[in-house]
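Contributing new records

If you add data, match the layout below exactly. Sequence lines come first and carry their own label; structure lines follow with theirs. Keep one chain per record. Anything else will be rejected by the validation script.
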Amino acid sequence: MSTTRFDHLVVAADSVSAGVDYLERHLGVQLPKGGEHPRMGTHNHLMQLSASSFVEVIAIDSDAAPPSRPRWFGLDDPYVQASLAASPRLLTWAINTPHLASLALDAVPLGRIEPMSRGALDWDITIAADGGLAAGGLLPVALQWHCDTHPAAGMQDLGCRLVGLTLHHPRAEWLAECLQRLGAAELATVESLADGEAAWLEAELDTPRGRRILSSRAPQRSGDSVMCLVPSLRRLSLRLAVALPVAMALGVSGCGSDSQVPLYVLAAEGGAYDGERVVTQGVVRRFEDPLHYWVEDQDLNRVELFPHDAVAEHLGQQVQVSGTFHLGERGGRRLTVASLTVLDE
């Protein structure tokens, strides 16, 4: 019988205050301060999920001396830093075991076992030599606590509970095999992606605001009408309760007109508009490798724009675009642009 247990979720941010604010907006709770990690130059805030699991918000501590080695969780990676500067996000997850040295770390690339401490708390943890995350954060960090009672038992219980953890990866069989070797196969659901799709993870939680999902992908909008992140929202009710009033407010009328749909609606329930002509707006952004363009709003809800030559000259501009919206099999959102209007000139 496996002794590997789920330990915690790691949410990273450009600053701990940004991370705490992010979770307060999405989960309706404010995480209390945890402490500092002098060896890594980081600090955190913590919240209990159960007596043996928790959520951690972690960030680089600007007041701490820089460490002599790369920080953990990939926090020194320029790409990770740029991503977190845009918005906090779920970065990875952690497992614990009373026999860390017995895990198959020769076969699963989690890094070396290193001692760590925070205040009076001591533990061993796997850290890659370059500080990076295994499988982009989909493989967990592994640790062993050196205490009689799990630290989560002493953390504040704010009414949040983990419902499930899902890992999306184009090499799903390989990922599942790695989890099996770690004794963690029952701790997460592994879903397959098409070859070339970016891997991501999501954690579903029950919170004081209802069911929510934390994701390693770009965050989606939470609000009174669209609850970010609950995939079980029914398409028809969403379109009647959210999209139609928004469209009416924007002055859309007449049969056959393109639907005015905000990006947060397309992000939350794109399936309701798959194959339809829509009009939306946001700022044009670009990623170089692989090259793609998208339009995003202030909450970082995004839809890819295609073809590239229709939007390349408008990088950084606020635009209104119309065209046919498509939702991919694995949740990718794309708009084939028919027309584009610059709004900020």
